[in-house]
Batch of 4 targets.
Target 1
Amino acid sequence: FQPGEKTPHGMMVFPTIENALDHAPQPTNGGRVIIRITPGVYHERIWVPQNRPNVELLGLGKTPADTVIVSNHYAGESGGTFFTETAEIAGNGFIADNLTFKNSAGPVGQALAVSVLADRVIFKHCRFLGYQDTLFANYGRQYYVDDYISGAVDFIFGNATAVFDHDVIHVIGHGGGMITAQSRLSPTSTTGYVIRDSKITLGPGIGTHGNDEGLGRPWRYYARVVYLNTYMPKGILPQGFGDWGYKPNQKTAFYAEAGSKGPGADLSARVPWERKLNAAEIEHFQPRNFLRGSDDWNPVAEAAKLP
C-alpha cells in the first residue's frame, strides 16, 4: 500500500509513526484514534500534541521488545534536557500498549526516552529504556501497569500524579543519582509517585563497593514518593532516601514505604524523616483513589480492557 492509502479493512497505511499521528483524524463523541504499529525498530521522534486527544499506540508484536521507537538525543548536543525526548506526549487520554520507548544516548547526561505532559494517560506492557532521566512524568494523572523502566540517574522524575503498578524498575548503572526525583511544589498539591506491587532489580556491580542505589531524592522541596508492597534487592541504599545535600528538604519531602519486601527492605536504617503510613493513608495511595480526580477516572478498569 502507498502512504495514506486505505486497506480493504478501511485502515490507512503510513511509513512512520509520526506520519500517522500527523494525519490522524480527530476523535468524535468520546472515541479514540488507534494507531497499530507493525513490529520493527523505528528510528524517529514522535510528538502527540495537545490537540491530539485520545490517541492509542498499539504495538503488534508478541512482546514490547518487538516494536521499538528509538532516538539518541542528549542535553549536551540538543540545547537542554527537554529537547531530548524520543516521545513527547501532550494529548490527554493517551494510551500506549506493547511498545518500547528508548533513548540510546547512554551515559552522556540527560537523555529522555519519554516526556509525559498530559492527563488520563495509561502505559501498559511498555518498556522505557535510558540512562539519565529516562521517564519525565511531569503533568496530569498517569498510570503505568506491567511496564519495565530502566536507567541509572534520577530516571523517573517530574511532578505528575502517577502510579507505577506491577512494574519492574531496573537500575543499569550508578551515576550518583537515585531512582526517583519527584518535584511536588507545595504541601497541598495532589501530585506524587506511588510505586506499588513492583520489583526493583539491579544490574551487575550495582550495590557493591559502596554504590548502593537510593529510592529517591527531592528535585523540589515537597517531593512525594510512596513505595507499597515493592520488592527491594540487596544493594538498595540502607537509608532509602536522600535530601539532595540540602537538609531543609528533610522537613518538607514526603517519602514513605509500607510492605516493602526483600533483602533491601530493612527499615531499621532508613532516614528518620521517612513517613510512617497508617491504614487510611495506604488506602489513599491505591491507584483507584490516588488517580480518581473530580471526574472519577478509573485507570485500573480502563487498563484491564487493553490487550
Note: The first helix runs from residue 17 to 23.
Target 2
Amino acid sequence: MSLFEAFSNLEIPRTENSKIFNATALNDFPFSKIGVNFLGFPVILISSKFDQTYLSQKNIKLKYIELTHNLECKVTESGKSKIDNYAVIVFKSNEGNLQNYFFGISLSLLSSLSKKPTQKEVFEIFKNFVEIFRSLTETPTKTIQGLWAELILIEQSKKPETLINYWHNNPEEKFDFNADNEKIEVKSSSNLERVHIFTAEQLNPTNENQVIIASIFTKQISNGVTILELLDNIANRLSDNELIAKIYSVIAKTLGNTFEQTTKIKYDYELAKNSLRFYKHQDISKVERINIPERVSEVKFKSDLTNIKPIDISTILTNGKLFKDT
C-alpha cells in the first residue's frame, strides 16, 4: 500500500485540536506513522531517540508545510489512543497532486533514515523538507515545457540514474546534463520545427568537450502526461533515495511558485518520445567564438536543425557514461 493510499483510508478527527491525529503505522518504517489532522491535511509523525538535539532547533512554518519538533500528540490508531512525543510534518493542502508530491518526497527521505533514528538524523531530514518546500514559494527558473523535456529524456534513457547524477542542481546552469567532457543540452519545440535558441557557450565548448543537443517536440494536449506522471515513471526505476530526492528538489527549484498550476499541464508523450533526436554541436550553425568581441557576453541566437543529420548518441566514443547510458 502506498503512503497516499494509507492516508486516504484514514478518518479525519472530529476535533479542532491541532495536536490530535488519526494515524496508521508504516511497516517499512516502524519509527514513523502516516496521519491526518482535523483539517484533513496529511501528517508524517516520526519518533526518534531522545538526544536533546531538538532544544537547539526552531519550528518552521512555510506555505505548504509546518515542521514541529518534539510535539506531544494524541494519536489514535486502530481505535486505540496514545499520547507521545513526535517530530511532526504537516502538509497544508488538500490538493491531490500536491499531496502525491509530498508523499513521494516523504518516502525517499524516510527511506534514508536508520531503523531507530536519532533526533539528529530526523533534523537532517527536516532540512531537506525545508529546502524543497521553500523553493515552491520562490520565482520559477525555467518554463514547464523545458523541464518536461528534460524529464522525458531521463525517462527514456537506458539508465536514468546516470542522467540524474549529471543533471543540473541549479536549473540556470549552462548545460542540462554535465559530465565533464560530455554534455547534453535539451531543446524543446512546441511548433514542430527544430529551430532552437542557443547561447554561444553551448555551441562553442573547448576542444576536449563534446556537446550533444537533444531536440524534442512538445505539444500540450488534454490527455497527455504531466510532470508528476513522468516523475513517477522515473522513480519506479530507481533504488537510490538520494537520486529520487534530487528529482523532487530540481522540480521544486525549477517551477517555484507556479508548481500548483504547471503540474496540471499535460504534454503529448508519444510525440515527444518519437520526435527525440540527437545532434553534435559541431554540426549546428552558430556564431563562432572568434567572431564574438572580447567584451561581449551572453550572446544568444536561433539555429535551424531541420536539415542536419541526427546521430546515434550511443555510438559516440568517449570514456564517460553519460552518452552511453542515455
Note: The chain has a mean pLDDT of 91.
Target 3
Amino acid sequence: LIAMIRRVQSARGRRQAGLFSIEGTRLVERALRAGAPLETVLVAAGLAHNDEPRMHELRNALQAAGCEVAVAPDELLRELTEGRDLGLILGLVRLPPALTLSDILSAKDTPEQAPPLLLAAVDIVDPGNVGALTRTAHAGGAAALLAVGASDPFHPRATRTSRGSIFKLPIVAYETAETLLVDLRHHGIAAAGTVAGGGIPLPVVRWPRVGTAILMGNEAEGLSLQVQAALDFSITIPMPDDVDSYSVNAAAAIILYAAARSRET
C-alpha cells in the first residue's frame, strides 16, 4: 500500500495503476460523500484510535463503503504527508473513466438548459493552479474542466487544492490545444481565450448564445500565438498599467462570473 501511494505521485504511475491519491481528513470525507471509488486508506495509529465523534463517523463511513483500512505509525504518515497538517490519512481512489466532450454535452438534463460553459486549463504547469482551477470551474458553474497538455488535475497537489471538486466536476483530457480546438469546432462550441492585452475588455464582452469554452493559458507564456489566432474571440481583464496579469485562477474566476452573469440578463 505504501509503495502504491508513492508510485501514484507520478503521472506515469497513476496511468499504470489506474489510481490517484488523496490526503487529509476532509478530502477523504468528501470523497465518501461524493461516492468516489475510494479503494483503500492508510491511517495513522493516533488517528485510527481517536474517539472524537468526527473520527467515529469517518470510520463508520469507510466501513459502510467497503473501503479497506490500514493503520501505520504516525511517524510514517508524517513522512508521507511531508508535515502538512491536513490529517494523517491518505487514500487511493480509482481514476474515473475517460470522458469526451460528447459525453458532457449529452448529459444535459433538458434541451432548454443554457448552453454549457467549459473551463480549459491549457498547459498549466503548477498542479496547485490546476487544482484551484478545478475548484473555480466547479464553483463557477462550468460543466467540465478541459485539461490540456501538461495540466494534470489528478496530481496529489492538485487534488488537495481542489478541496473535493475533483470528485464532482467532469474532466475531459486533451493532448494539445490544437486537438481541443478541433473538438470544440466539431461540437459548435465557441472558443474564448484570455489574453493580458488586446482582447475585448470585460465587462463589454457579448457572450455568444452557444456553448463556450474559456481557455486559460500557461502561467508564464499564456496562450500561444497559434492558439490565439484560432480563437473565436479573446478577453482581457482591465488592469492598472504597472500590472502584468492576474493569477490564472483569479482571472478564471472573474471571467466565469462575468459569463454567468451575462447569461442571466
Note: The first strand starts at residue 19 and ends at 23.
Target 4
Amino acid sequence: MTLVQIIVLAVIQGLTEFLPVSSSAHLILGGKVFGWPDQGLVFDVATHLGTLFAVLFYFRRDLVEMAQAWFGPVRSDADRQHRNMVIYLAVASLPALLVGFLAHDWVELYLRDVRIIAWTTIGFGLLLWISDAVAPKQRSIDEIRLGSALLIGIAQVLALVPGTSRSGVTITAGRFLGFTPEAAARFSFLLSIPIVGAAGAYGALSVATGDAPINWMQFMLAFLLAAVAGWVCIAAFLALLQRVGLLPFVIYRLLLGVGLLWLLN
C-alpha cells in the first residue's frame, strides 16, 4: 500500500466506523475512484484496533465507573445504573456476535456486492430518517432497560449486511424506541466496543495463523490515523447532533448510495 492509500483509507475507516453511514460503501467508493486494490486483512486489523482504542479512550470515564460499580459494592443509584449498563451491553452484543460467527463466511461470499451495498446504504438511510422524524425524543440513556438493549442488539445483526452501517442501524433502533439522538448514539458507541473488539481479535488471529506479511510501520500508521479519526468523529458527532440532528447524514447516505449505483453503469 502507498502512503496516500494508507492515510486516506485509515481516516475513512476511522470516521465512518462511528458515523451513521456505511464504512464498506466508503472503502469501495474510494477504491473505485482511485483504482486501488483491496487493502487486505492486515490493514483491516490495524484500523479496527485503532477505532477500538478511540472509543475506549473517549468513554474511559464511563468504562472506569462501570468497572468500579461491577466489581465494587453498589452505594448509589448511579452505581446500580453503571452495573446494569454492563449487563445491557453484554446482552445487546450477543445476537451480532453469534450470527456473525455463524454467517461471516456466507456474508463475505454473497453480500459484498456493490449493488447490494448501494441499495442498503439508501434503504437504511431512509429508515434512519423515518425513525428520527416520527419517534419522540424523550428517553435518556439512563432510561435504557434490558428489553430495549436487546432490541437494539437484534437490530445490530442487520449491520452484518455491508452498506447497512452498524452505528446507523443501532441509532435507528434507539430512535424508534424513543431515545434522544444523543442517547441512541452514546449507547451505539458503547455497544461498538465488544463488536469492534471481536472483529479485531478475529482478524488478528487470522493474521497470526496465516502467511500474510506485516509491515509494522504501515500497521502502526493505519492504527494511529484510525484512532485519531475515530476519536474526533465521536466527539464531533455527539456535539453536532444537538445542532443539526440526523437529517444531514440521511441526505449524505442517499447521495452516497446513488453515487455507488452510478459507478456500476
Note: The chain has eleven helices and no strands.
